[in-house]
Amino acid sequence: MQSITDFPPAVAEPVVTVPLQPDQEQRRAARTYIGVELDGKHLRAVSVADGRVQTWETVVGASPADAVRVWSSRARLSGAQVRIAWAGGIGFMRHQELADVPPDQQREQLLQVAVDTLGEEPAAAAGIAGQYAPPVSGEQGPTALLVTLQGPELDALWEIIGDRDWSVVPMVLVPQVDGLHVAVNIACVACYVVEGGIPRTYVELKTGGLEALADKVQMPPEDLIALRGNIGDLPDSATIIGYLKNVVTEVTTWARSWESNKQTGTPPSCWVHGPGADLGALSVVIADALGYRSQGTAIPRLNIVDHSAIPTPDWPQAYVATQAAQAVIPPLAVIPNPVVVAARAQAAARAQRAINMTGIVIAIAAVIGLLAVPIVLAWHQASNAANALRIAQLERSEVAYPLSVYQQVQQDSGVVSGIKAADPDVTWVQQMLASTAPPGANISGYNLQVMGAKMQVTAPAKISSSRPFSEIATWVLALDKAGATQVQPGTFNYSGGTITLTLQFVLPLQKPVVHPAGRVAVPAPVAHRITTPQVRHVPGGAHK
Amino acid sequence: MSDPHPKSRSVAINGRNVALALIIVLVVALIPGRIALHKRNTYLQQANADNVQTVLVKQQVQLGQLVQAHLSKYQKELKQDEQAVPAAYSLPQLVQLMTAMATAAGVTWTSASPSTEAAAASSEGVPGTLAYPMTITVDGTAAAVSQFVRQLQQQAQLFTITNLVVSYPDGGRDVLAASAQINLVSYVANAYSPVGGTTTTTTTTP
C-alpha cells in the first residue's frame, strides 16, 4: 500500500463527455436545478441553469434540517427544482424483481417491500430506482432497486421542506459515473459500485466520517477539510493518518470481498469524492491500494455543463450535489414528500367533504325547493284570493246600505206575501154565493172558516121553487163549476114550496188566477219561499 | 417527481357519498314532504274557498250597485212593508183603526176582544211575524158589513180573517140589516222565535 505521504499534490482533471438524454437537455434549459448534498449538519448546494453552474456553496447548521432551513432562507429558490441527496442513513438496499407486477402497481409493490422489510413505512423517504437491467445474469427482469432512508432527522427535514416540491433521495441513487465510489463524507464514509448508472452495492464503513475524526483531534470538520494534504506537521497527524489508514484498509477489504463475490467484472474506475477525498491525498492512496492509480483519480465532469463556478479543489466536495442538480432520476425513484402527501390527503379530504357538503346542500336545497315551491305557490294563490276577497268586501261595504235595504225588502215582501196569502178572499166568496144562487134563493148569511190553505164556507139559505131538488142540484153544480170543492147541500127540508138548507163547500183562500192559456195557477204560499235572510230585519224597525 | 395519489378512487368515494347523502335526504324528506303536501292542499282549499266567496261578494256588489240606482223605490217599498207589518203591537192604534173603518163603512162596532199577547206561531202565524188574534162584531146593513170586511182586507196594515160569520137576520140582502162576527189576526214583525202562549182579553165597547 502506498503511503499517504507519497501522494502527489495535484493532477490535471480529465474531461469526460457523458451525453445527456433529450429530456435532460430540455429540462436543463427550462429551469434552475439545485442539487443539495446533505452530509449530516453540512449542506453542499450547487445550482445549474442555462447550461452552467450558477452557484456553489456550503452551509453548516445545527442539524441537517437546520442546515436546509438556513440555506433555503437565503438561497434564491423561486421556480427552482431542488433535489436533496442524503449522505448515509440508508436503511437497506435491495434489488427487487418486478416481473409479475403490472407497471402501474410497481410503486406500491416496492413500498410494500419497504414496509415488510422495515416493519413500518419508510420513516421519511425511500429512494426507489426504476426498472433497469438485472444486475446479475440469470435474474428475470424487470428489476428495481429499493433503497430506504430511515431516521428522525429525516422527519425534521420534511417538516422544513413543507409543501415545497422537493425530493429527498439517498446519495447513492443520484446517477453517477460508473466505477467504484468512495464517498468520504463528514457523516460517514460510504463505498458503492455503479454500473450502467445504477448502484449495485453499497456499504458504510465502520471507521466513520470526518466527524468521528474531528472528535478525536478536537478540530472542526471544516478545518480538517481545509488541511487537504498538509497533515504532516500537525500534532495530531498520527491520529489523522491512523484514521485514513483505517479507511483505506476497510475500503480495500470491502472491495476485495465484493470483487470475489460478484459475478460481473471489476469496476473500470475508482472515484473518491466528498469533503475528505483530498485529506492526506486519500484518493490517490485508495486508487493505489485498489490498483486504479494508472486510470487517474480526478472525478470527471460533464462537459456540456460549465462547472467553472466550482473551483477545482472543491470539485470532490461538489460532485454529488452537482450530479443531484443535473441528473435525472427515474420517475419511480423517489417517494414523495410525506408532508406534501399528508397535505394533499388533507386537501383531498377537505375537497371530499366540500363535495359531500355541496351535494348535501344541493340535495337539501332541491328537496326544500320541491317542498317549498308548491307551498309558496299555493300560499301565493291563497294570499291573492284573500286579497281579492278583501277588496271585494271593501267594495261591498260601499254598497252595504243599498244591499241591506234590498235584503230587507226581500224579506219583508216575503212576510207580506205570506200574510196576504193567508187572508181569505171574502169578496170571492160573496160573489160566488151571489152568482151561483138560483133565482128565488134567499141566503141568510154565511160562515167562512179558514182551515190551513183552504176555507170552508157554510151558507144557510131558503129556496122557493116547485122543483126543489133540481134547484139544489143546479146550485151545487154551479158551485162546483166555479171551483168549489166538497160541495154539500147538507140536510135540507122542503115544506110549503120552500127548501131550507145549509150549503157547504170548500174553496182555496185565494181566487185562482186564470192565465190567457187557460191554465189555472194557484198562488203558492210565498212565505215558504223565503230564503234565510243574511240581514235580519224587523219590518217597522230601524235599519241595520 | 411522479404523483402517486390515486385520485380516481377519491372521486369514486365522493360520488358514492354524495349519492348516499342524496338518498338519505330524499328519504328523510318524505316526512316533511307529506306535511308540505298537506299544507299546500290547505292553502289551495283556502284559495278556492276565498275565490268562491269573492265571486259571491262581487255579485252582491253588482246587486248593491243596481239597488243603489233605484234606492228610492226600494225605500218606498220598505216603508210600505213596515206599515203592513208594524214593528210593535199597539192596541190603542188598533182600536183607533177599527173605529175609523167602522165609521167609514157605516157599521156599528158592537164588541171586540183583542189579544195583547201573541198567538202561537203554529196556529195562526206567518214566518217572521207575531200573530195577535182579535174578534170583533159589527152591525149594519149588508152592504156596510161587506164594505167593512173589504176595508179590513185592503188596509195598509195587514190582517187575515180566520173566521167570518155574516148573518142577515131578515133574510134580505143589500139594504137589510146584517151583522158580522170577524175573527182576525193582526201581525207585528218578529225578529226572534215566535213566542208561545197567548192571553186573550175581551173588551166590549158600548
Task: Give an account of the 3D structure.
- The complex is a heterodimer of chains A (544) and B (206).
- Chain A has 544 residues and is α+β, with helices and mostly antiparallel strands.
- Chain A folds into three domains: 4-336, 2-Layer Sandwich (Nucleotidyltransferase, domain 5), CATH 3.30.420; 347-417; 423-524, General secretion pathway protein M, EpsM (Gyrase A, domain 2), CATH 3.30.1360.100.
- Helices cover 39% and strands 23% of the residues of chain A.
- In chain A, strands 13, 14, 15, 16, 17 and 18 form a six-stranded antiparallel β-sheet that branches.
- Chain A is rod-shaped, with a radius of gyration of 64 Å.
- The relative contact order of chain A is 0.10.
- Mean pLDDT of chain A is 79; it is low at 1-20 and 523-544.
- The N and C termini of chain B lie far apart (138 Å).
- Chain B contains five helices and four strands.
- With 206 residues, chain B is an alpha+beta fold.
- Chain B has a four-stranded antiparallel β-sheet, covered by helices on one side.
- Chain B folds into two domains: 1-69; 84-189, Ribosomal protein S6/Translation elongation factor EF1B (Alpha-Beta Plaits).
- Chain B is 53% helix and 20% strand.
- Chains A and B meet through helix 10, helix 11, helix 12 and strand 14 of A and helix 1, helix 2, helix 5, strand 3 and strand 4 of B.
- Strand 14 of chain A pairs antiparallel with strand 3 of chain B, so a sheet runs across the interface.
Distance between the termini of chain B: 138 Å
On the 0-100 scale, what is the average pLDDT of chain A? 79
CATH-defined topology of the largest domain in chain B: Alpha-Beta Plaits
CATH architecture of the largest domain in chain A: 2-Layer Sandwich
The total of beta strands of chain B comes to 4
Strand order of the largest sheet of chain B: 1-2-4-3
Shape of chain A: rod-shaped
Output the CATH class name of the largest domain in chain A. Answer: Alpha Beta
Give the biggest sheet of chain A.
6 strands, antiparallel
Biggest interface? A-B, 81 and 84 residues
Q: What structural category do the secondary elements of chain B indicate? A: alpha+beta
Give the helix tally of chain A.
13
Residue share in helix of chain A: 25-40%
